[in-house]
Every structure is written in C-alpha cells, then in structure tokens.
Amino acid sequence: QVHLVETGGGLVQAGGSLKLSCEVSGRTFSRLGWFRQAPGREREFVANATGGSYPFYAEFVKGRFTISGTKNRVYLQMNDLKPEDTAVYYCAARALTSPTYDYWGQGTQVTVSS
After folding, report:
1. Residue 17 DSSP one-character state
2. b/e string for 45-73 if b means 16 or more Cβ within 10 A?
3. What pLDDT is stored for residue 106 in this prediction?
4. CA–CA separation, 65 vs 30, rounded Å?
C-alpha cells in the first residue's frame, strides 16, 4: 500500500524559511510533486521533480522555492515566504505513464504571518 507523509509545516514570519519533507512508502515513483490549497481557493501546482531531477516550478515560486529528493522522498525548501504562501501543502506522486497524480499525502499546514 502506498503512503505519502508530509512533515515540516508550521508558522513563520514573512521573509522566513521552512523546509517540507515527504516520505513515500509502498513503491517508488518517477515523479513527485508539491501542491497547495489556501482557504477558499482551488488546489494549485507548486513544483515537481522527475527521478529527483529536472525540477519544474510554478511561476509564483520561482527563485524562492527549491524542490529536491529521490524517487521515494521529496523536499521543498521555501525561502522568502510571503503571507500569500499560507496554505495546506500536499505531496503527490505519479508514474511517468500516468496522466494524473494518483497518490496524495494528508497535507501539512504552512502559515506565514505578516
């Protein structure tokens, strides 16, 4: 059975940093990604990596967030956090042949105070 477990969320002041971690068990995946959902908003893509390489970012986090990891662990280093980054952050996994992310973690809350 596949499990994704995120850790590392918390409360931080604007301009601060947090590092999120996601551990995947049950199998390995070619692509791991991070998404987020703020209150009253739809879930949105943040970043992904393929085989721990080839990072790809949403425009609004470029230069501030860095994704890294392997096929069963992924990290999201978040620097220069802004209040608008406040959201629940989810780790997600998909096989290269899958058109969608098939597995999701339970989410970790990130709150950035102004």
Report:
1. -
2. ebbbbeebeeeebeeebeeebbbebebbb
3. 97
4. 21
SS3 52: coil
Look up residue 83 and give its two tokens: 């209040």
pLDDT at 97: 85
Written as six digits, the tokens of 106 are: 């339970």
Q: Calculate the dihedral angle through the C-alpha atoms of 9, 14, 41, 2, rounding to the nearest 10 degrees.
A: -20
**What is the C-alpha to C-alpha distance for residues 53 and 49, in angstroms, rounded to an integer?**
5
**What pLDDT does residue 99 have?**
87
Q: Which residues of 4-27 are buried (b: 16+ CB within 10 A; e: fewer)?
A: bebebbeebeeeeebebbbebeee
- Output the six-digit token pair for 16: 């601060």
User: Which residue numbers in the chain have pLDDT < 70?
Assistant: none
Q: Which residues contact 108 (CB under 8 A, 6 or more apart)?
A: 6, 7, 8, 9, 20, 88, 89
pLDDT at 61: 93
Helix, strand or coil, per DSSP, at residue 83: helix
Identify the pLDDT of residue 81: 98
